[in-house]
Amino acid sequence: RAATIVDTGDAYIAIAGQMTGVGGAVRLVRVAKADFASVVQGTDDVFADGMVWKLGSSVYTVVKKGDGWAIGRFDPATLELKASSAPVSRWTFLTPVDGKLVAQAPTGGFLVLEAEALTTASEVKR
């Protein structure tokens, strides 16, 4: 779907799927490099046009959270959601800075997030 794919060494992780008027899902998928046959699909809805980032030992992308969007941190082997942030813009970037992550809030300001827990360390309002 999106223009990013993450290489985890033995597999690729990307956003896949489709939403239509009658259903569907857009989720993270993990495809084994060895044969492209072993596929793991996540269980959390993600932003179809989002990016996927590998930072440290985790994979991050924008996930559906209630009526909005959040940054989600996933286990790269199981695609299990480990943590999610306060609301962000679905078009956000994610930039590591001094051991934290910076994302765009829905209001246009910036959120500084703790990398593991994705709790808000600080917010720069617009």
Helix/strand order: EEEEEEEEEEEE
Percent of residues in helical segments? Answer: under 10%
First and last CA, distance: 31 Å
Strand content: over 45%
Radius of gyration: 14 Å
Overall pLDDT confidence: 93
How are the strands of the largest sheet arranged?
A: 1-2-3-4
Oligomer: single chain
In short:
The chain is an all-beta fold. The protein contains no helices and twelve strands.
Structure overview:
The protein is built from no helices and 12 strands. By secondary structure, it is mainly β. The strands form 3 sheets. A 4-stranded antiparallel sheet has the order 1-2-3-4, with no helix packed on it. A hairpin with a 2-residue loop joins strand 5 and strand 6.
Question: Would you spell out the secondary-structure blueprint of this structure?
Answer:
Blueprint: E1 6-7, E2 11-20, E3 23-32, E4 39-41, E5 52-55, E6 58-65, E7 68-74, E8 81-87, E9 94-97, E10 100-104, E11 110-114, E12 120-124
Antiparallel strand pairs: 1-2, 2-3, 3-4, 5-6, 6-7, 7-8, 9-10, 10-11, 11-12
Keywords:
single chain, 126 residues, mainly beta, 4-stranded antiparallel beta sheet
